[in-house]
Design a protein that fits this description.
- This protein has three helices and five strands, in the order βαβαββαβ.
- The chain has about 120 residues and is an alpha/beta fold.
- The protein has a single domain, classed as Oxidized Rhodanese, domain 1.
- The protein has a five-stranded parallel sheet with strand order 1-5-4-2-3.
- Helix 2 links the parallel strand 2 and strand 3.
- The longest helix has 13 residues.
């Protein structure tokens, strides 16, 4: 049983409009991302997810919507996110090629700086 949802482009666009806004993650290459991506998405290549884990939401209940180019890449990313504890992961069925909504181009936005985290010892 899959631990993530596969969303049609219409469902994906509706999920983007939800409040609170989901974290949109593009797992394609930098070149593919620069050529066009879903507005406000962050780019972390699927092979970089573990190394760049600190850039992911700190709350495991944050909805994460994935965009990729191949089903294999998107499923690998979605499965990894579910395994590390994210409870609400959705994948754009058909990948970016199926996306019919607005498109941005250019480099990804720099990651938002994180403030200090409270740790109980």
């Amino acid at each position: 049983m899959a631990r993530f949802q596969e969303l049609t482009p219409t469902e994906f666009e509706a999920a983007l409009a939800a409040s609170p806004r989901p974290y949109v993650l593009d797992v394609r290459s930098d070149e593919e991302f620069r050529a066009g991506h879903v507005p406000s998405s962050r780019r972390i290549h699927v092979h970089e997810l573990a190394a760049r884990r600190a850039e992911l939401p700190t709350s495991k209940i944050t909805r994460i919507l994935l965009v990729g180019d191949t089903p294999k890449r998107m499923q690998a990313a979605a499965t990894w996110l579910a395994l590390v504890g994210f409870a609400d992961v959705g994948v754009l069925a058909g990948g970016f090629a199926a996306w019919t909504g607005p498109v941005e181009t250019g480099p990804p936005a720099p990651p938002k700086p994180r403030g200090p985290e409270l740790r109980v010892i």
